[in-house]
Amino acid sequence: MHIANQVLGNIHADESLSMEVQRLDKQKKVERVFVPFHDAGRRRVRLRTDQGTDIGVDLPMDEALQNGDVLAVGDESDRMVLIEVAPSEAMALRMSKEIPADQLFEFGVRLGHMLGNQHWPITVKDDVVYAPLTIDHKVMETVVRTHGFDGIESEFVPVQPGDVPTAMPHIEHRHPA
């Protein structure tokens, strides 16, 4: 098994890297790893490339795989692994416009408490909170309904890698010696 502990860059953010990957791909020196959406947020994961190479990914604490990341494999500087993260779905939560202004703060705190207790990573865009699908649709819907949120609308929407986080951000903590 090869160990990859560094992301060289991302083809969607670095045009020169993208061109280098294309050049090496023509020479059949690029392997692809198709990563399920829920595994992309992991910094340590064992994967298998499309050519059958076993790769152990061991990234620093503050990093996670993203769609388009390029990993170096072993000592071969002319061989690369391209990460392709599968698209998924997210639960989109919207607060009703009819919630009285004096109740918005409490509503937001309760919603944050519920999402945090479930360890659901979120992204907020405009007036919508997105939580990626981490468990069955019905379970996510039941969790929201069980917390008694009147005035919240939810639906499942398609998302691409990068639209929403794939895991809760790591919060560093230490235990006394």
TrEMBL record:
SMART domains: UreE_N. It is found in: Cytoplasm. The keyword Chaperone applies. Residues 17-81 form the UreE urease accessory N-terminal domain. Its main location: cytoplasm. GO terms for cellular component: cytoplasm. InterPro entries: UreE, UreE_C_dom, UreE_N, UreE_N_sf. One of its GO terms (molecular function) is unfolded protein binding. Keywords: Chaperone, Cytoplasm, Nickel. HAMAP family: UreE (MF_00822). Involved in urease metallocenter assembly. Binds nickel. Probably functions as a nickel donor during metallocenter assembly. Belongs to the UreE family. This is Urease accessory protein UreE. The gene is ureE.
